[in-house]
Request: fold
Amino acid sequence: MRHPSWIITIMAVITLGLTLAAAYWQFQRADYKRTLEAQFIAMQAEGVVNLNNAVDLVSGLEFRRVIATGKFDASRRMVLDNRIRRGQAGYEVLVPLTLVDSNDIVLVNLGWIPRGREFGQIPKIAMPDSVVSVSGTAVKPGLGALELSENVIAGDIWQNLDLKRYRSLYSLDVLDYVIQGDAVEGVTNIFERTWSSRSFGILKHLSYAGQWALFSFLTLFLYIYYGFIKQNETQEK
Reply:
């Protein structure tokens, strides 16, 4: 009985191992996202947290519904570039909010706006000078786009939401959380405030896992068919 060469066998084993590992990693990511989704649902069901009250602003706020009252500082805004929605490039605009009767500062994501014809062309945004109320969901910034160099800021346009870099640039000790605004008093309503990240991408990871599992099956099938069955059929002829 003929069998594949050692080189073919080694290549098949390596390919099978890599594709199975990739499938397993995607399944793990899906499980992790399920945990986040469950945490999000549980936190959303909790009562609304008023950030102006004496609450722990360091831990336990992620995915909680929050309200805050304070004043915006539009001169220290952060404009996140390359935020894609429905295939259209745009920006997300974040502005620091100094809480009333407190030295605490939190970044508020006002929402998404489409990019203009030219890079950096941002519609005029009317920002109130008075005290305003904000409501939304507290989230922790995640991983952003790949940074190919340290030069990732052009004016107030940023590639990633990097709180450490933001604190250093503006000398503002902002909280570790960002409010994804649902309602922002006194701010122009040109922003889209449907936060697609709340789907957590579970189906995407399961789809990728299925693809890698299929590649594993094909690798094993081709190895057995051409390495054993086909060779022995040819030998018998």
Summary: The radius of gyration is 25 Å. Residues 89 and 117 are 10 Å apart (CA to CA).
